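Recall the central idea of this unit: under ordinary conditions, the amino acid sequence of a chain determines the structure it adopts. In this exercise we apply that idea directly, starting from the sequence alone.
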Amino acid sequence: MFLQTPKRHFDEDLARARELLAHARSLAPGVLQDDVLRAAWMMAVGASDAYFSDAYGDLLARTLRAKQLEPAVAIPDRLNNLKVPVIAILRDANSGWRWRMAARELIEEENVLSLEKVKKLFNHFFRDGHKILNTDTIANFITHRDAKSRTFGITGTRYRRLTTSADQNRAKKAAVGHMQDHFEEIFQRRHDCIHNCDRPKIALQGISPEHAGKAIEDIHFLVARCNEAFLAEFPVYLTTLGFGAVTRNRVLQ
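Accordingly, the structure predicted from this sequence is:
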């Protein structure tokens, strides 16, 4: 099943972050507790980075495999113009592994630590009007049962009370901006921890179990909602390109 491995690895890695968080809670307040919390934060952000990289490679590989099975189907120039490593071409042409490795090699130098990068990579696979992480679909995120107002700047209950399209559109635009800023802070904190020991200026940044716990929770929400959207939209993408049911069934397994 497509995306099964990236999501399973994410769940495993996020569980590691939660174990670190639980361990930190058992420690006395101080330097050691703070640094274990920072490790939990970095693990959680790393889990999301790995998920989005692996998920993109998965979808790309399956699209290339579908093209191999049905050469007559036209695919977008963005995919036609990909520079596939020579070693991938030399691998067994009938192997799906060939295309997974080609996709991995294409993105192994990348990281996916911004929502803009997520949109750039994945919205290629979405229909107009269904793009992810923008006003097309943000209402589905805002009103999800697990959504938090800290992520969007508005609660699902308050959003549902908006009665005019104009008010809803303003709320969605504001929510997208709030979400981008929110996750930029989460991702930046990982950068600060790795590159300057969480001391971006002069003073060490404070951290608490509650703060780290909310970051881990929000990363889980982001990846879970995106994964649901990818699962729903990618089969439609293949259908829209013109791939037949037999090909779709083969590449989606």
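Residues 61 and 97 are 9 Å apart (CA to CA).
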